[in-house]
Specification:
90 residues, mainly alpha
């Protein structure tokens, strides 16, 4: 039976298909697009990831958050006090 291939007007509208002429002024040709150098196929991100990880590892070694610095200062203060106490006992 052919009826199972038919759709209602509402079902068709719900698909949001183009129903009238659309402006083409914002479109570019394939040549214009290729000239821009945009990616047009999947490319491996392996080298990007390696560079990014290396950068992150270097910055992690150089920089610390304020909280991390605060903890380090507090630990240094405690060690300093402990050393002072040991010298007094000697």
């Amino acid at each position: 039976m052919i009826l199972h291939f038919l759709v209602t007007k509402q079902e068709l509208e719900d698909k949001h298909y183009i129903s009238e002429h659309q402006s083409l002024t914002n479109l570019v040709t394939k040549d214009e697009l290729e000239a821009k150098g945009y990616l047009n196929a999947h490319q491996s991100l392996e080298e990007y990831v390696k560079k990014r990880l290396k950068y992150l590892m270097l910055t992690q070694l150089v920089f610390a958050t304020k909280e991390e610095l605060s903890v380090v200062k507090q630990k240094n203060k405690i060690r300093s006090n402990q050393k002072r106490m040991l010298r007094k006992r000697s």
